[in-house]
Amino acid sequence: MSTNHNDTLIELLAGMLQDAVLWKAKRLWSHATDPDEQAVAMDELMKMVTCIGNETKRLQYIELVQKELKIKNQLLKKQVRDFFQAQEAKKQAAIAKAKIENQFKNTEDAGLPDGFKGEIYDALKYGIYEHEGVYYTRGTKGGDYPVTNFTMKIIYQFDTGDELAFRLITVKNVYGFESYININTDDFVSLGPFKKILARRGDYIFKGTDSDLSRLQELLQKDEVKAKYVKTLGWNKRAKFYGFANGIFPINKDFIPVDEYGIIEHDGKKYFIPAVSKMYIEKDDQFVNEKKFIYRKPVDGFGFKEWSKLFYDTYGDKSIPGILFYIGSLYRDIIMKQLQRYPMLCLFGPPGAGKGQMAESLMCMFGEKQDQIMLGGASTVVGFMRKFAQFSNAIVWLDEYKNNLPMKFIESFKNIYDGKGYERGKMTNDFATESTPIHSSCILSGQDMPTIEPALFMRTILLSFEDGKFTDEQRKSFQQLKDLEAPGLSYITTHLLQYRDIIESDFKERQQIIFKQLIREVANVEVDDRMILNISMLLTFQDLLLHKLDLPFTFKESKAFLIENMMHQHTILAGNNDIAKFWGVVESLFHQEILFEGKDFELADGYIYLCLSKAHPQYIKEMRMRGDMNYLSKSTMEHYLQLDKTVFVEHKKRRFADGSNNWVYQMKYNRIGIDLIKIQKKEYENAEQHNIQLEMKMKEMDNPKPIVGGKVESAPFDGWRPVEEN
Fold first, then answer.
1. What pLDDT is recorded for position 143?
2. Dihedral, 299, 305, 310, 313 alpha carbons, nearest 10
3. What is the pLDDT of residue 671?
4. H or E stretch covering 621
5. What share of the chain is helix, strand, coil (3-state, %, to 5)?
6. How do residues 637-655 score in pLDDT, each as one tens digit?
7. Cys bridge to 127: 138, 267, 417, 656, which one at CB 3.0-4.6 A?
8. What distances in angstroms separate CA 295 from CA 14, 329, 495, one per listed residue?
9. DSSP structure class, residue 366
10. Mean pLDDT of all residues in the chain?
11. DSSP 325-359
12. What is the pTM of this model?
């Protein structure tokens, strides 16, 4: 090659060169899209910049990086300044220590008692020292004197990320009694609270002044070790590990158990998980949920392949969305970042149909089964939303869903899908708000379909558990599954975490392809895109991990079931609006005295027995009079009436009060939301008697009696028993 060509090549390459510092800074910052990732990126930037030895060049690069990345604050400059100030402080401390050690060769020169075994430098610098099991403070005239009957040590200082930090200290008195105390910063720096906390724990006496306490703090804090408090178990996106109560699981590494204090060391940093720490091990009322979120060692010969097969054999095709929903929950943060939503799994059906057992099985994938939150009890929105902040990339189970729950509950369920936490104002002058984040996915279960709000219904993937009939093979598989999952199968969860890079890099692109394919395949413009989006997410997980996981069903089988199940859900949603309109017409016709109780329908024991063959012609007539031609045919109406199992009970014969024997639809009256109650006022009845009868009838119709064997009887057993009958 000629010289001219060489010069041209060199010139070309020179124009392509990039500054290495700016290149790495851009790369770090471009991947940081939320506050946690930006904090990690800022730490890496600080480490890189501090490696530049020349101060002038270092300051120039700091300005260049902040300008290039459009970082408005001076955080990078401050972190670098703090780093070098800390380095200088260490250097000056070493010089001062050497000077003292040259000046005072022994304890007698320093005025310290015979037998003193500590550091002369520390005793002189801090003015307080440990000797013979107590602390002495340095006196000015009368010599040194003891101010405690104990010694103490700060084991760890915990950084919570909040304004209030705390420390784990151990205190040992002269009699040999030792206690572990968790003390917050406010109590540690205030003489009164400090003495009070010590006194509560036993014979620990501090006789010093505020000044002595300050000296003691300074002495102890010089050797304290900082640990990051892990408030949320599950995925820790800053430190890149999955946290359990008893340790952490870094991706593609071995499990690291906590020590007796609840401490783990990972990548040169220490983390504190309090749930099984010796401080709380006997406190059953603290960290109740966290203590169940625990890592279990693998069971030989029972991994994901065996579990998913047993799960499928137990729950049949309903296991398809169950398994895929569980896998997706482990990567929820990625999905929320890319799509800003993740569906809820809605398990619907009567007591004993199996919905609760499936939910329990999925909860056992994170350790011991977490108790579900009972929405019908004393739960509040704030209470159950906090559970979603306790665990990250896990599952929270909300049970006893009913359509008559307060609207603030319904709105909160919708927010779970969108990842919007519960917000409330703080008692401050700046009108700040405090948000409870949503870190986990949700199982919603109950005897009602969430049809009260279409926007909520479309945020769920509905699984209907209706008949509760199970084969002998299913019962056998069920018992095997329950025996294996009782101690928890969290090791299967940690096994699945190894595919995080695949999900993070390929999910969005592949999901968009599958979503478009589903739209073409469904070919129904009336189906809401959100429902198609929901099942596309689950199918994407199977598609991406098709060659990584051995699932008991094919992609084709999954797609067929999920589409069929979605279309069933769509039919319910579509019919729900038309049925609501129908019942509104029935109510209007009743009050117009066109439909009559005892002739067209009957009310008894909390049920309405509707003769559709009599009511339907009047319904069509009324709709035509209103100019509304969107009425349902009798056959369509029959189909829709039977779809919603929260309302429909049975289609059967019933004899009415007028003597006619009719085919009727037995429905739960209090689920319909109409008023068909009227008590005829007889001449001999006064207003008070009439009101009493009316109140009794309303009470009767608001509390439907349970149905067993086709008869109104006592309540059925509330729980599936998949075992052979005696």
1. 79
2. -170
3. 81
4. helix 612-625
5. 45, 20, 35
6. 888 888 777 788 999 999 9
7. 138
8. 54, 17, 12
9. G
10. 85
11. HHHHHTTHHHHHHHHS---EEEEE--TTSSHHHHH
12. 0.75
